[in-house]
Records
---
Amino acid sequence: MTDETLPNGLRVPKIGFGCWKIGGGGTADPSQDEWSLAALRSALELGYTHFDTAESYAGGHSEELVGQAVRRADIQRENLFITSKVSPSHLDSQSLLRSCEASLRRLQMDYLDLYLIHWPAPNMRLGETFRTLNKLVTDGKIRHLGVSNFDISQLQLAQSVSATPILTNQVPYSLGDRSYVKNGMLAYCQENDILLTAYSPVQQGGLTIDTALQAIADAHNATVQQIALAWLVQQHRVITIPMSGNPAHQADNLAAGEIVLSEAEMAVLG
């Protein structure tokens, strides 16, 4: 269960590595570089191939560090799946072009596998935005397009104006946060072969542990966090991007993709 395979043959890792803490928080914090690079190095050594970053993560410094880590690891670019995101304030054509070029420059890469609109913006002009995004696809700067934090109507509009299929909607989804199930997004993505990329899959360490979840974890000789991730990626068209700087936890997260929950266990978890 390491990849999600789409009808067009594209294979996307079920479990990727979220980079929102890499390089700092809302702004760059070079004092965290050693920790960040060590986290990326161990993830690459463990076999992670999907790395999810954004121009807003640490003011772009996250992208710089991802690029540094990849170069130091001497891994072939085609063996990686790199995602970045454009901020909602940069959705006009010129700003979008500048943002994409800046992300590629910071990453020191020639193309992105996936480029997302990070958040919907008030009064978005998605026609203009997607004309520009599609040009970036045609120019070879981006392989695939997606969105993040969109509702169904916004996603449908994006689909209607994009010549390139929408690969994913990245939203918060976990055992404890099912808002995008309740609003119909999960079902819509599954019906339309759109990946739902779950961020905050263990609620940033705040996952509620009940007796049923603990019992399932014990039965699989796994942690509850692994079961929470396995529950996600066992669902059709769901992938996830947990983050940890701890190599042992990184290994556990990746191994969660190999845990197979029974129908009864999936039903208990809901």
---
Amino acid sequence: MDYFKLTKEDLGKNSKIPIVALGSAGEVFYEMALDMIQNIEENNAKGEKTVFICPVGPVGQYPIFVRLVNERNVSLKNTWFFNMDEYLQDDDTYIDTENPLSFRGFMNRTVYNKIKPELVMPENQRVFPDPKNPEKLDEMLGALGGAQVCYGGIGITGHVAFNEPENVPVDEFGKRPTRKLSISPETRAVNSIGDLGGAINAMPRRCITIGMKSILAAKKIRLYCFRDWHRAVVRQAAYGDVTASFPVTLVQNHPDARITVTDNVAEAAF
């Protein structure tokens, strides 16, 4: 696995997913927010709808996105946000939106409630996967012609959304639909460090996630990475073998994918 030792200068050469290195995390978040805005503005100008798959992680782009929407008076009335995933309780029902871990609560507080009412999209165009009806999200996406862009990050296990590694053939994994599943111990540990000060026992064990099928069906995939441990993750994503045991590697087969990283992530993993 010599790709872990790739230098900043060599990162991206002969990679199976194009990699763009910027400077700070702030630059990466701004690039992400601007890409979202520009896509919406272009579609609005043509009188066409915008359909995004969106993450809650990374999240630094959202305050910038909200500011740009409000300052530039960008209408979101013909825009759909399909959020990737959400934590569930042990009985496979949503965690409460007041829970600080709730992605639904985050989007309401940080995005939708901060956008001018005359600009924000209707509530039925703010879509989360539903544990009571997992198929609904894929059906809605299909009816809209699929996502134009899937925005996201990459987890420690190579997961995109909460599509955790599986020991199955690549073709089978690539057809996974929206579904409920258990979160891996590795993901729970890393997320507990980032979100709960290391309180791993307070981390949910279950989630609902959009599947690789809808992610890979997006016309464009744009992934953004900024944490120290992303050094190894990004290199395996872009240079490793395509395998369901490191889910993001399936993106190598997508015709229009890109990973944007910070200057720090561009440094060799070890």
